[in-house]
Write the structure tokens for this entry.
Amino acid sequence: MSIPVTLADLPDALAAHPWGYLITVGDDLRAHTLAVPTDWRDGALHLQAGRSTRANATARRDVTMVFPSAEPGAFSLIVDGTATVTDAEVAVVPSSAVLHRPAIAVADQ
């Protein structure tokens, strides 16, 4: 089950997700995943990234970020966007976002 998140509501949704996974695609067309804290400012997610991630985001600017829930079985936040790369930072301007519930129910612990 997915719940759309408007771009206007995205900063509030991000407040519960201080870090996420940036997913880029390499020259070999394989996913490259980087776990990073993010900073929301000026309408974009800003994060520090290494050489491979910056190269991937430069070559293929469409990226996805996944922000897992801290609670088992709760909704994760998925954000699609366009990356802009500087010397050591990647800024992702979101194009869409959803809260997504796990497909498999997690047993109470």
In short: The first strand starts at residue 2 and ends at 4. Residues 2-96 form a domain with the Pnp Oxidase; Chain A fold (CATH 2.30.110.10). The mean pLDDT is 92. The chain has one domain: 2-96.
